[in-house]
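look at this one:
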Amino acid sequence: MVTPLCVGDGFASGIINLGDIQVAQISTFNKVWASYEGGPDNLGATVFEPTRLPEGFSMLGYYSQPNNKPLFGWVLAAKDNSSTSKPALKEPLNYTLIWSTNSMQISQNSPAYFWLPTPPDGYKAVGHLVTTTLDKPSLDKVRCVRSDLTDQIETYDWIWGSGTSSDSNEFNIYETRPKNRGTKARGLPVGTFLAQNGGNNSLLSISCLKNANLNLDSMPNLKQIQAIVQAYSPIMYLHPDEEYLPSSVNWFFGNGGLLYRRGRESHPVPIQPNGTNLPQDHYNDGFYWLDLPADEANKERVKRGDLQSSQAYLHIKPMFGGTFTDIAFWVYYPFNGPERVKVEFINISLGKIGEHVGDWEHVTLRVSNFNGELKRVYFSEHSGGIWVDSSELEFKNKNKPIVYSSLHGHAFYPKAGIHHQGIDITSKSNIIMDMGVGYEVISAKYLGSEIVEPPWLNYFREWGPVISYDIAEELRKVKWLPTKLKKFLENLVNSLPSEMLGEEGPTGPKVKSNWNGDEVDNNHQCIYQYICQIYSNSHNS
């Protein structure tokens, strides 16, 4: 489904140098143990032992994932690269039994025994082992890592446990990730799982690795970025009823986009090509904002956007200590249309609620710097979003992930249907944007002077005016609704993030927290089901 790219210098070479250790990404496994119930969707989970390690490399721990998705994982193996008297890797002194499924009345292929390596002083465990007998693993089976080469982790997705994901006093296993994440953070995930038998989740028994050699040699050069984009650039489907299409930024500027200044609202200034006359002071005090053309005819025309001119704006950044490359594809819309909500097969217009000038959305590819494979894709959804493994995506033309843009709101989703409290509706159509056509790389700091940032990128003010709505008045315009449904809609709208309500003008890509940090992840939050339950309760009361 996704194929590796050609090897380049440092990038996709198979091994990354972290300083005193070298690491390789292992995706070949032998199954050790499986449960057939419990965990997400009550389908159980499986534990795997990594195999086919490169010569001289040692195992750091086992891999596990829930059974509700296809096998698509990896763990790191490590090789000691230190030249000091204190080795970077050491065998554990012993093992501690964390948990056994021997007495659990569950469907499983055998009992499982979860072991935590006991590290020597000055070293830390970065993974667990699992056996199907009570015999401890051999001490040479795994390695612990010198403490200065490790970093803190946090739990991420729930894999399996004796209770549910919220039962902190029960035994659970979790996917983990570095606690500190961003373009300058050095922590990197090992791919192993955390086995936690109750206790305090702030006192975690394993760590992740840290890149002590952060020279970014493993990041792709410009030619390799072009190859990645050619292979994996997303295909976006807009809703068949979409009225407000994307455009290029320069099309908006060249078709009457205006720069306003507080105190001089009656004298807006036309925006110059590429935004050369926009403020570049990196402040946002509400003193400036952008808006549509002043004359009504041009305003309505520019609102509709211009798909033919549209292009994706690419931000390339290192993640996880330079072991992954994130490529954010930013898309600009001159106008965000009014929201619609779907409840019990009924499409309901919410008046002007949700309208605002200027809309930035993005989808991010996370590519492994070990082999050039597309591992995950992030779909921005208003003030948050979700990561999806590439094994669970829809693809077009073999490798290009499909992205669905919601009607009017333009949030991105991996599947067609109804999302986010019933308000975001997506569908396939003939309105398509190939984000790999005519794209522009607007920022890649690690490439230095090879990439020149456009002036509009460093405009930190609002891309639209502040707009406020009388929510009650807008809902009163929907005259045919029964009182209980109107009350439900009022509660629903009041619960939405301000970005969906259009209470203030949106800011550009460089102002977002994910520009230098990780994406804001709302993974696996079933908001729509929750809202439907609220409606059901209010309808029956």
User: Anything to note?
Assistant: Residues 222-464 form one domain.
